[in-house]
Amino acid sequence: MLLLDPFTAPLYTLNVFLESQLDHFLKSHHDLKHSFHSSIFTLKNQLLTRFVIYLVMASSAFFTTGNSNSLSTVSVTACFIGLNSYQLLPCTLLMLLATYSTHLFWLLAFFRRLQAEFISLEKEFTENTKFIRSELHRLFNSLLTCWMLIRLGVMTAVLVVTLALQDHPFIWSVLSPKILYEILLFMMHLIVALAVTATLVPSFIKAVV
Asked: Of 6, 30, 148, 190, which sits with the fewest C-beta atoms within 10 Å of its C-beta?
């Protein structure tokens, strides 16, 4: 929150509150107090629903904090927080984090909830640890593949439309910034996916072995 503009700080707090309430709502409508296999089936449906909702919330949160597809809405105030002079890499990183902060929050919140759900299931059915671990691998790989294909599909569609409308008078003011946003967003998603794959999932698998 230190990277955000003062007027967007309450919006970030609102996103945290909405995520906690949404998590409570999803859990209250998916009771896992059944047999093991029915609990697995119910949990998969819950996580699929959560996956779709969290992606929608991540996309909307990007715009609710004042961002748009125009480069004029990019806040550069975060570039110099904690720095005495301009430095290209730190300033770029701080600007990206400030721009996509709420978007990244919803993505990371989903994987945190995913891990928590499987830990809870493992504690309830301790005799099925290996099966739960294999289901986690399968579900995580499926969601990750679907997630990256969605971002790649959106970016490809934008590139195709831009290429088709290359003679349009708004090519530089509208379409080109959109390409830049989509490329950066895809890179951010890829970094998050690699970070989650390298940290959260291995630590959970080690915990349940």
From this structure: 6
Q: Which amino acid is at 193?
A: A
Q: Which long-range contacts (CB under 8 A, 24 or more apart) does 24-27 make?
A: 26/50, 26/53
- Token pair in block for residue 17: 């509150």
Q: Is the pLDDT of residue 207 over 50?
A: no
Rounded to 10 degrees, the C-alpha dihedral 111/193/58/122 comes to -10
Of 118, 183, 133, 129, nearest in space to 154 by CA: 183
Helix (H, G, I), strand (E, B) or coil at 70: coil
| Burial of 31 from C-beta contacts in 10 A (0-12 / 13-18 / 19+) | exposed
Number of helices (H), then strands (E), in the chain: 7, 0
Using a 10 angstrom Cβ sphere, with 0-12 exposed, 13-18 middle and 19 or more buried, the burial of residue 4 is buried
Q: What is the pLDDT of residues 85-133, one digit of tens each?
A: 778 888 888 888 888 888 888 988 988 888 787 777 767 666 666 766 6
Map out the domains of the chain as residue ranges: 6-208
Question: Across residues 53-64, what is the average pLDDT?
Answer: 87
